[in-house]
Fold these 3 entries.
Entry 1:
Amino acid sequence: MFAGSGILIGEGEESLVQWRAECCCGQLSATCLGEPVRVSVCHCLACKRRTGGAFSFNARFRADAVSIEGRARKFVRIGGSGVRSTYSFCPICGITIYYQSDAERDLSPYPERALKAGDALVHLAPDAGHLVHMPTHIDVLCGDYQSVVERNHAANRRRPQVP
Ligand SMILES: [Zn+2]
Ligand SMILES: [Zn+2]
């Protein structure tokens, strides 16, 4: 996403943040509901070329939380890791508004279904720090930040000590 801003809609516990990204001419826009799955900054050469800046700022949302208005043209870029991403930009002003990565098309809208398996993984090989860490990828998607902190601290304590 590019050049977005958020407003709160609804009231109390029913409220959600609605994010809107819009191109320079206003023809193409994306509206996203709820909190992003991930927010990142990237300084790779491809992002510098795409944005014209020193960094790209990206907010990732589940596909079912995003609605697009306007016409877009697309280009495909295959990253260094071999992952294919499709970028959508406004054909009038050229601003990229959204992209979809093949690596994330399978991101489940129901991460809570993996919580039980994650809990089992933590206890499967408690001296293997990476296995203690892995379930935190699910914990963070479910908003269990306390488990993220505790499990990552535990995983770090189990790292092999290099003399
Ligand atoms: Zn435009
Ligand atoms: Zn990048």
Entry 2:
Amino acid sequence: MPVDFVILGGGPAGVQAASTAARLGARVTLVEDNVVGGSANLRDCIPSKAMIATGGVLTLAARAHKLGLERLEPRLDLAAMRERVEAITGRIEATSTQLLASQGVRVISGRGRLDGARTIEVDSMEEGSISLHADAILLATGSRPRVPTWAPVDGKRVLLTRQAYPPEEIPEHLVVIGSGVTGVEFVHMFRSLGSKVTLIVSRQQILPQKDPEVAAALETDFLATGVRLLKGARAEGIEVHDDGTVTVACDDGRMVTGSHVLLAIGSLPNSESLGLDTAGVQTDTRGFVPINQHCQSNIPHIYAAGDVSGRLPLSSVAFVQGRRAAEHVMGLHTREHRHLDYDKAASAIFTEPEIADVGLAEAEAFAVGRKIRVTKVPFATNARALINGDPRGFIKIVSDPATGVVLGGSIVGERAAELISVLAVAVTNNLRVTDLAESLLVHPALAEALAEAAE
Ligand SMILES: Cc1cc2nc3c(=O)[nH]c(=O)nc-3n(C[C@H](O)[C@H](O)[C@H](O)COP(=O)(O)OP(=O)(O)OC[C@H]3O[C@@H](n4cnc5c(N)ncnc54)[C@H](O)[C@@H]3O)c2cc1C
């Protein structure tokens, strides 16, 4: 008898798990209450990157004269950009749906919850109430933006991330609350599309979790392009005025008024209405479902993957977790399953300059007193960066001084999100700096700076 595998949530984690398990012979049902492809993925991650790409062309055009062109002044076509964003997300949704259909996965459009350890109840829009038996269950329900009690979110003037695209209008003056990865991407996105932007930074450093040198590089660029930073201020109130303006009040008495406010202050797991208590599935104090190496919760046949697992909230991580959970359900864990080391996950921030990092950061090593070797090469000495007209930024490699093993790295500059893959492969596979330095690379290429930093 095939294994009955029921998946709640059709984001990157759920779709990847469904596809893997179906390929391995499971009878798979996927329950999704919004959009196959995932709400966080298709309503946040992908649209934000698509709009950043449009803004990037405007920024590039502003620099075009440096490459020997007459000054270019393209203007934003808002309707065309909206259409483009919708076409991209529609395409990804269709691709996921077709993939699952071709593999015989039953997709139910509706909201599911556990009713005991082996039954899923679904309120389906098309099929009414459905009861499903499961030998194994995957919770892949993702997360949603956190909304503080003091924020009157209306989707018009006071926005959550996923309400900001595709936008009806480009904000005249956007006030962004939250200076983590999401907050700074929004600053960059709307600044490049023509908004005046103010960023409220609760500490003294934007991107507080990142290497200070990396954060400083972005801050320099923000200030150079007119972004206003309100540092050491915590937002604690928002008032929408009759004239359409919005004022944010900070805990130190400072006020900032703009045309729109965007909240980017973290997310909450979608776990509270899943009936987890009926099956005895434990959550942590914030509602995330703790998991082991195979993505199992405390109940061995109930798995969790993606944002709801409380590990790194990245689509890239959700994909791998979904695949891993499905393989374990199908007994493939007996084959050597490499230890999934979340500390070695690469991540990127799609700002300008782009930022990416992987593994151990210099500041992190310093904080725990670990001996490291740090080498840094600026793009200003890289031929390709000069040719492209954008020599900002640097590559920094952190390695073990005794063995030469690459422990981590940060990249600030053009194509950082692509280049970091090389360092991610090195970190994951314990390659040494000499392995990078002795590789025969292309010339002229930005990647040459990687080899140089590895020397
Ligand atoms: C602004 C922003 C930008 C981002 N940019 C990036 C990026 O550049 N790179 C990156 O790797 N990650 C990025 N992320 C993070 C990424 O989007 C998430 O980590 C990823 O989508 C998580 O996948 P998931 O499958 O866990 O959840 P989701 O993609 O949210 O999918 C979960 C699905 O489950 C459904 N669901 C919830 N409850 C139920 C239920 N009871 N029954 C049925 N269905 C249910 C939801 O509707 C949703 O569709 C970004 C996030 C944000 C907010």
Entry 3:
Amino acid sequence: MQKISVLVMKITLAIFLCLFTSSLWAAQYVTRSDTKVLASKDLHAKVLGQLGKSSVIEATEADKGWYKTHYNGTDGYIQAKYLQETGVLPAEEESNDGNTIYIFGGGALALIAIIAGAVYRYAPKKKKRKKNLIITPQMIVHWYQCRHCSVYIQKSSEASLTGCEKAHAHHWIKLGEVGEHKYICKKCSTIINLVSEPAADGCKGGEQHQWRKV
Ligand SMILES: [Zn+2]
Ligand SMILES: [Zn+2]
């Protein structure tokens, strides 16, 4: 909630700033009497022209008793005491006033920047990716037995072929997955523990094992 209220406050401030700056120097004035328009803020400056009483001018700047206005395509200055404010120009009538547009544009940019900043800041951030729990597959260990030498080993991968005493290489028979049930072969007395009954192949003499659960 606090974040939202800060956001609203910022936007309000930006809009206010925008409106305020845009209207600051867009005031219309009416001349109280015949008035000279001078080239600078100086009573002795070059006279650009004369305005009759009740002429409407648009002041774009006010400084030390002088108002700046556009006069015949140039900047002119009129003494403030000759002018009477008529009110603030509606925004759509300011299109000829470069300064006003510039200031308004600046305000609008500030507004956009502030909103963009706020949205960026308060936008829900991407959720951090949860670290996936890496489940390493449990090593499945099998019993292997060589049909030549009857050696049997537990291996999680294929057993090495070298080192057979009865042949040039072991010839492994996969008997089954290592588990909690113990089996014994009546013929060769091999005792192994497996999840289920071992394969029959690979007993000595090329025969079939005769497994018995112990
Ligand atoms: Zn062998
Ligand atoms: Zn056997």
